[in-house]
Hints:
The protein is mainly beta. Among the domains are: about 5-130, no CATH class; about 150-230, no CATH class; about 400-545, no CATH class. Helix content is about 5%, strand content about 45%. It is built from 2 helices and 41 strands. It has a 27-stranded parallel beta sheet that branches. The protein has a 4-stranded mixed beta sheet with strand order 1-2-4-3, covered by helices on one side. A 4-stranded antiparallel beta sheet has the order 12-15-13-14, with no helix packed on it.
Amino acid sequence: MKNQLILFFFILFLGRLSAFAQEIVHISYEQGQTQVRINEQGELLVNVSSEDLNTFKNQGQLHYSDFGAKGDGKADDIDAIAATHAVANQLGFSVKADNSARYYISGKGRIAMIQTDTDFGMAQFIIDDTEVEDRTKHVFMVSSNLRSFDLEGVTSLKRDQQKLDVPFPGPCLVTVTDDNVRRYIRYGPNENDGSPQTDIFIVDKDGNVDPNAPIVWDFDQITEITALPMDETLLTITGGIFNTIANQAESRYNYHSRGIAIRRSNVLVEGLEHHIYGEGEHGAPYGGFLNFRDCSNVTVRNSILTGHKTYRTIGSAGVPVSMGSYDISLSRSINVSFEHCSQTNDINDPTYWGIMGSNFCKNLILDHVTFSRFDAHMGVANATVRHSTLGHMGINAIGTGTFLVENSTLNGRTLINLRSDYGSTWEGELIVRDCVFIPAGGRQSSASLIGGSNSGQHDFGYTAYMPERIVIENLHIDDSNHPEDYQGPAIFANFNQEMTDDSYVEKFPHVRSEEVVLKNVTIESGKELRVSDNPYLFRNVEIRNE
């Protein structure tokens, strides 16, 4: 290459729902040494010598040490790490960490963009969050070189619409918003005014909507609609032992990112570990060490994560609340699965928050995992938990479609909790097969299978439904530790204690289930399975024993 040739990388960083920040890496190929510098604007200036360029081409792989990383656990290596990935992205080379290295990463606001296969190996990464310049910036971002574009010619959509009559360059993720309609108007200590109606779905090059991830809302108006081309080649991220030194910030809702963001479709994360050290008496919550957004077909396999300590603050309603803090966070993501994964701390220890949270997702799968929680805040369309053990926070969800739980052990306060802050709504079917339910992880409790509540007086921005059909087959309820006045497990919790006869009027009716199918439900205490503490609510539900 000619001397003085400077190549510019324009790398987009997704900071908020619709805000992008730009980080520029200047790469030159000149005589002299391969080195990394920083200009007055804080941008990286990377020079690659001709000799080293030939070496890199021959090996087809880059190492962080090639660009000055010390790996001694003391020197700040984030600039060298970011530079390595920038050059690898330009040349199409993979990146390999040195197995014996301990890379120290300071709180500097630098993002390493990953667009090629990366093997972290047995290397350790020390992420120091005690002094963070910009808590919204991730340390690594797995990104695509494909860019989203505004979708012209689509002014409305219908629920379950099968086709968009516009051409696409190939398979795309389509995100659509109507700012005129508010959904998920939250109730309770963290009350809010809801979020704009949002949906995300997959289309092929002819505009056919993937029927496994259907459109779930009617859009009479569209204020924004974009399409993001999906990478069709698999990008792999393997290995790595990541150690977070926890932040010591004030305990309020100032979420820290500081992990690995995935903003690309068709990704495999294999064999990663994340540990947390130094959590004290106070700290800010985390928005996911693994943070997924605007992606599809992503698998996390054989990985170990860590639950965060629970801190408390004052919620929007002016009362104390526990803050959610996550090692896994998903938003606007489709077809994401966790396979053979676990967490380092006790899944039944309530001092640690549930490890996972999600919003606006479709087709989430936990398979052979040991986690403290599955959670869907602002809706999931279709979810599966199988061959897994879930801890003290169990399954918390609202959404649509089919929720399948099979061959699993559940330790939550209820078998499945329909989140009351979002109306305890599930529009579809719940299926539970071949499972064991240990109420409250074996602590003394009165067991209910389906938990939640809805007074019928709050507008959540949608009609709230209970599952139309519930199928429970081969379930063992270990309710051996129960209070003296225990009457036996209930199918439904008492969703509305005030509604005991027809004098109570629901301003926003909560649509009850139509049918419950039971087959081979065994109960450790020997008590009978009851409908509810409030049978009036469920007087019209057909209960069938098969």
